[in-house]
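Issue 218. Parser rejects a valid record. Input:
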Amino acid sequence: MDIQLHAFNGASNKMQLAEAVSDEHRSGPYLLTCTEIWRQSREAVFDLFAEYFLTSEQARFASLHSKNTLGVLFNLLVEPGSKRFALCHILDLLKLPPISEEDQEAKLELCIKYLETLSQSHIEEHDHEVDILVDMLGGICEVLQTDLKYYQALFREGECFVHIVTVLNE
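Output the parser choked on:
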């Protein structure tokens, strides 16, 4: 089961969602704003993904190997109201103990993407860029606490120090 969140990511999909709501639900006692419909839909998708994610370790490994899922989670880091959800699931994926060589490679790719996002997050002009930086740096500390030796090696291979110094220098 491959959950694809990309259909619920982006402003253009808000318009598609609004157009999909029938006229009878746009007026009278069913009056919901596009924003409210979008918020409810997004919460439902987040709940569905979280439920899928918690079903089994196999579901988590499928998410780790899914470039679409990872791409959406990283895109959600800068979306208002989604950062906590995305960061929580990204960190859970980072904490998965690898079972195979493919898992190890996927974790290294995830680590590199996480560190690149950390480096780029301060460049983008978002009001909450400092919050993202602090939360992502806190995430590194949280992950390191699960298995210090393993994650030190993983972060070293992903050139974590270089990314953090880059953030500090800019």
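Fixed in the parser; the record now loads. The chain is about 70% helix and 0% strand.
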